[in-house]
């Protein structure tokens, strides 16, 4: 039986800001966009969450709920640096680490937990080391499947730990609202509510055929399995990244090409920096544009050899931009690098060709 830990940093972006800026501590803090524009909440401190403020909520709505909230723009470079510190601590324990995002990851400690006495003791030691090195708190879930470990990490937040033993798993699953299950989003929960399914137990008692009819074979079976505590997914130590990109939504729709191209160049440099940070190179670049009416187009360009610099990529992107229809202003531009390979692969291909 596997022993899996899910680590979830507590209000990560907001906690980094409160750590670095003492004047924000103990106050409702929102990391996100302009509260008077179209921005959304990227993270909210626990003081802000008391007002019902959550990630992905519009900053305008967040300000209405808490007029005294402090709004700050995200500092992703700072968050990535802290995330790398945390990952280093995880990799010191086991190579079987699967990052999900900057602030959460799975660890399979099945082969190493004995040295710590238990997987729970290991998780607590890791949480203590994270706090010692970063000054930030983390919550942990410990169980025998990824699904249960992730559910567990959310049950005792912030700065808590929950262990779900195999013999207690089904009763816990039965008691949970379906929204607590990772993989059941808003749209799926609405469909389930429409057929009278609100809890894990009700989901478990729903025939597989009904779930497949509602969600298709793959997702329907997944929902059926998780309701029965079945999750055979392994911790993937090396997740294959298919693309790297960035995008920006403007506070006001923009007509002017010079402003749009400047923003596009900025996004290209940011995306190329992320690519380089991961020791990746890309053969394809894609321009994403969303118009004022929310219609959207993409245009791509591929090269036989990878893009060598942000300026090289921007040259092609600016050409793609000049070819798109311009009948209305633009509210979003995005840049995505894909068709990726590691820099080592690129070097080896070059040597093979000599």
UniProtKB/TrEMBL annotation:
Enzyme class, first EC level, given as a word: transferase
Q: Where in the cell is it found?
A: Cytoplasm
One GO location term (cellular component): cytosol
Signal peptide boundaries: none
Single Gene Ontology BP annotation = SOS response
Catalytic reaction list: DNA(n) + a 2'-deoxyribonucleoside 5'-triphosphate = DNA(n+1) + diphosphate
Q: Does the keyword Zinc apply?
A: no
User: Self-association or partners: how does it assemble?
Assistant: Monomer.
Instruction: Summarize the protein's role.
Output: Poorly processive, error-prone DNA polymerase involved in untargeted mutagenesis. Copies undamaged DNA at stalled replication forks, which arise in vivo from mismatched or misaligned primer ends. These misaligned primers can be extended by PolIV. Exhibits no 3'-5' exonuclease (proofreading) activity. May be involved in translesional synthesis, in conjunction with the beta clamp from PolIII.
What protein is this chain from?
DNA polymerase IV
Give the classification, highest ranks: Bacteria, Pseudomonadati, Pseudomonadota, Gammaproteobacteria, Moraxellales
């Amino acid at each position: 039986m596997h022993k899996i830990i899910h680590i979830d940093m507590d209000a990560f972006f907001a906690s980094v800001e409160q750590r670095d800026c003492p004047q924000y501590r103990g106050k409702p803090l929102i990391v996100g966009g302009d509260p008077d524009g179209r921005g959304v909440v990227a993270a909210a401190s626990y003081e802000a969450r008391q007002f019902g403020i959550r990630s992905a909520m519009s900053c305008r709505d967040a300000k209405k709920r808490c007029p005294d909230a402090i709004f700050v723009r995200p500092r992703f470079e700072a968050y990535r640096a802290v995330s790398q510190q945390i990952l280093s601590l995880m990799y010191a324990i086991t190579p079987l680490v699967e990052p999900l995002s900057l602030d959460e990851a799975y660890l399979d400690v099945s082969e190493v937990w004995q040295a710590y006495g238990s997987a729970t003791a290991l998780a607590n030691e890791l949480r203590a080391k994270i706090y010692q090195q970063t000054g930030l708190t983390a919550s942990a879930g410990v169980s025998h499947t990824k699904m249960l470990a992730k559910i567990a990490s959310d049950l005792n937040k912030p700065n808590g730990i929950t262990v779900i033993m195999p013999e207690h798993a089904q009763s816990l699953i039965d008691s949970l609202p379906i929204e607590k299950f990772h993989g059941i989003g808003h749209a799926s929960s609405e469909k389930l509510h429409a057929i009278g399914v609100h809890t894990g137990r009700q989901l478990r008692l729903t025939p597989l055929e009904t779930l497949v009819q509602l969600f298709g074979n793959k997702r329907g079976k997944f929902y059926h399995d998780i309701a029965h505590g079945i999750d055979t997914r392994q911790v993937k130590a090396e997740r294959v990244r298919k693309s790297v990109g960035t995008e920006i939504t403007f506070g006001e729709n923009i007509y002017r090409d010079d402003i749009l191209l400047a923003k596009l160049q900025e996004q290209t440099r940011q995306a190329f920096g992320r690519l380089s940070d991961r020791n990746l190179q890309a053969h394809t670049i894609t321009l994403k544009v969303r118009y004022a009416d929310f219609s959207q187009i993409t245009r791509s360009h591929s090269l036989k050899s990878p893009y060598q610099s942000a300026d090289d990529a921007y040259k092609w992107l600016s050409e793609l931009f000049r070819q798109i229809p311009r009948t209305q202003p633009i509210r979003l531009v995005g840049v995505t690098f894909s068709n990726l390979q590691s820099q080592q692969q690129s070097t080896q291909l070059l040597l093979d060709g000599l």
